[in-house]
Amino acid sequence: MNRFFYFLKTYIGFSHKESRGFLLLVPFLLILGISPYALSHLKNKKGDALYASYLHRLDSLQKAGEVLISPPLPSFNPSDTISTPRKRPVPSGIQKISFSEADSVTLQIVPGIGPSLAGRIIKYREAMGGFHSKSQLSEIFGLKAETIEGIWEYFDFAPQITRKIPINTCDLEELAKHPYITFQEAKVMIAFRNQHGAYASSGDLLKIKIFKKEWIDQISPYLDFAQ
Q1: Please, which residues have CB within 8 angstroms of residue 142's CB and are 6 or more apart in sequence?
Q2: What is the Cα–Cα distance from 227 to 210, expressed in whole angstroms?
Q3: What angle do CA 84, 85, 90 make, to 5 degrees?
Q4: How many helices (DSSP H) and strands (DSSP E) are in the chain?
Q5: FRET pair for 178, CA 20 to 30 Å: which of 41, 86, 133, 154?
Q6: In degrees rounded to 5, what are phi and psi of residue 160?
Q7: Could you give the CA distance from residue 213 to residue 7 in angstroms, rounded to a whole number?
Q8: DSSP code of residue 160
Q9: Structural domain boundaries in the chain
Q10: For the segment 144-182, what is each residue's pLDDT rounded down to a tens digit?
Q11: What's the fold here for domain 94-161?
Q12: Rounded to an integer, what distance in angstroms lies between the CA atom of residue 137 and that of residue 125?
């Protein structure tokens, strides 16, 4: 032990107190180093036990005269992770309706759309106040391009804005609720209106130098300039 402390002091520069602290730290370092291998061993052991149980279950079913058409345990299919074009034909009994009339239930007829994604689409459409372009669907998180193409095989699209924001009378909170308008942008719009008066058209928004024309063109369909 003295030789070990002498080595730490001579070659590393540890004091006697630091050497004792390092000595106490060594077991923890060993445990940290060994734990990944121990966990891996336990995991492999558990996997072996599961596989043995699987073989035993399979053997019992075969001895009972059962014919297996699929494995009794879930298996991984690599094709499940590959995005492939949808090839299923649209059922002949389906009558297209306007996309603006679709609800979260009817949307689930489209391959690739489940309850969660259908609810997200409807929620986004309502928050927007309707869609004026098909391309706006690409803004919805989790909605793939091939799924969007499939939507138009089941639904018709016509530009329809169901709700506009009265920009000359709305308050800050109402303006900032729109997905295209951040709270900071809404503050600037309200402050400019208070200072310069009501907006006559989207052209007045161009007078706010920090706003880009592309963004103004994006939000204009959702603004009502009535005074």
Answers
A1: 117, 120
A2: 24
A3: 135
A4: 7, 6
A5: 154
A6: -150, 110
A7: 72
A8: E
A9: 2-63, 94-161, 165-224
A10: 999 999 999 999 999 999 999 999 999 999 999 999 999
A11: DNA polymerase; domain 1 (1.10.150)
A12: 9
* Sign of torsion over alpha carbons 172, 163, 204, 210: positive
> What band does 67 get if pLDDT is binned at 50, 70 and 90?
low
Amino acid 157 reads F
Q: Which two tokens stand for residue 11?
A: 């070659």
Query: 154: closest CA among 117, 120, 105?
Result: 105
Pairwise CA distance, residues 54 & 73, whole Å: 8
C-alpha distance across the termini of the chain, in Å = 90
Tell me the per-residue pLDDT of 211-220, one tens digit each, with 9 for 90 and over: 999 999 999 9
- The CA radius of gyration of the chain, in Å to the nearest whole number, is 32
